[in-house]
Every structure is written in structure tokens, then in C-alpha cells.
Amino acid sequence: MKKILFPTDFSETANNALIYALRMAENQKATLFVLHAYEMPVISATANPVMVQDVYKTIELSNFENFKDQVPQIRDIAKKHNLDHVPMHFILEEGFLNTILKKRVKEEDIDLVVMGTNGNSGLDKKLLGSNTANAISTLDVPVLSIPHDAIFDGIDSIAFTTLFTAQDKVTLEKILKIAKGFDATVKCVHVATAKDRVEASIIESWKANYKDENIKFYIVDSNDVEKSVFEFLDTENIDLLVSVKRNRSFFEKLFTSSMTKKLSYHNYVPVLAFHEE
In this protein, which residues make up the domain named UspA (predicted)? Predict the structure, then answer.
């Protein structure tokens, strides 16, 4: 990962996620692209064209001045956490965030998007905000979502939910590169349901293949996948959850389950979503 994109609205949630974005950039020796997108208001078609132009110019200038004021604050956050050596590029662009994200990911050849998520906005007070849910669904690159309450204190333990497929092996290789930078243990967890039950020989072949890596394997027998994953995060003190987005319904179910009311630990755990290729 050489280029990481970080959209921000300069909120407390975004500034918290910035620390993760900087740490990930440091880990991967990557450049961080800091993006602020803003939308123009819709003005009545009957309004005076000259007045409309003046209003738009005023809004653009105001956004530029705000952006200019925020850049030093972002640099201060980096300096405070001894991350001011991480190269940063700043982008200010008008338009819908999701549209700009897709455009910038393609234009800049971005490898990873890091986003802060606020549990009190977007999908009816659920963990993933609407912007992050859209990014995970529509972008072709991995998305790292940072919950508002997450606190960066190193990454020692990474959970990877796996079905032991060939695609998962591709993803695991990418996870290992991140894990080595943080000196973290990767904990592969498979929830064996009546529908998804992997042959023991396949699991043993994975163990043999990665015997020299800092990886542990866990098989959990349960038909309640999301509950089992949440409990695993809790019992294993997971710092980062990695999942392959196989289908939208599973991913949404994972984060909108009623279990969120019973198990709160995962509200502090960042989630890195890969796409099945």
C-alpha cells in the first residue's frame, strides 16, 4: 500500500481516525492523501444568475479559507503523535463525497481508504455511517473504518474472519504485510455453521502453509455468525477486525445486528473490509 486516502470533515471523529490513517501510512511507508469534500447548496432556478454566482463564489472562498485553517491543525495532530514525517497531500474538492472518493481512488491509484465512522449518524445510529457503508459497497479498494470510540494503542492482535477460500488466502497475504509492520498476531477465525463448514484437511493445509508466520487459527461452532464474531473480538482483545465483503447483506448484518446492544466491545474495534476478487 503506497497511497492511502483519508476523507475528513475536520470533526472529532475524523481527527481520531486521522491517527489510524497516519499510523497505517507509516506502517506501509505510504503517502497520505487528505481529502475534504463539500457540497454546494441547491438554489432556485428563478433566482438572479448574478446573485447565484456571487453566493457560490462566497461559499467556495469560505470553504477554501476553512480548509486552509484546518491544514495546520492536521499537521499539529501528526506532530503530537510523532507522525509528522509521514508525507501528506491535501485535496479540497466540491461535490458528493462518494462520487469524489471513486474519482480520486481511480485518478491517484489509491490502495486503501481510511474513514472515521460516527455511530450517531447515517444508518439510524448503527455502527457504520452511511458514507462508510457506501464506500465499502462501491469502492474497489479496501476500506478501513474507525469507530468514534476507537483509541489507537498499537495493533497487537488482528482478527480475520475466513471461509478458507483461495480469495481469503490472497487477502491473508496482504494482512500479513500490515501485521508485520505492527508486530501483530493474526488470528484467523472461522465460524462453522451448518451451511459453511470447511473440511479439516483444508484447515490443516492452511496451518502447514503458514506454520512459520505469526498466525493462529480458531474454529467456532455456531449458527450465529455475528454473535460469534463479536464475542471473539471481546475474548481475544482484538485491535483490528478484517473481513472480506462477500455480499452486502452479510456485512450489513454483521454491523446492524441486535447483538450490538448486548456486546459493546466491537464499537471500539476498527474494521478493514476487503472485496472478494
Answer: 1-146
Q: Is the domain of 78 the same as that of 202? A: no
3-state secondary structure of 210: coil
Together in a domain, 137 and 185: no
The HSE-up count of residue 183 (CA atoms within 13 Å, CB side) is: 1
**Domain span holding position 100:** 3-146
Asked if 254 and 269 count as a contact pair (C-beta separation under 8 A), the reply is no
Sheet strands (E) in 42-100 = 88-94
- The CA radius of gyration of the chain, in Å to the nearest whole number, is 20
Rounded Cα gap, residues 251 and 226, in angstroms = 9
What is the residue-averaged pLDDT of the chain? 83
Mean pLDDT, rounded, for 225-247:
85
214 touches 186 (CB < 8 A): yes
pTM of the model: 0.84
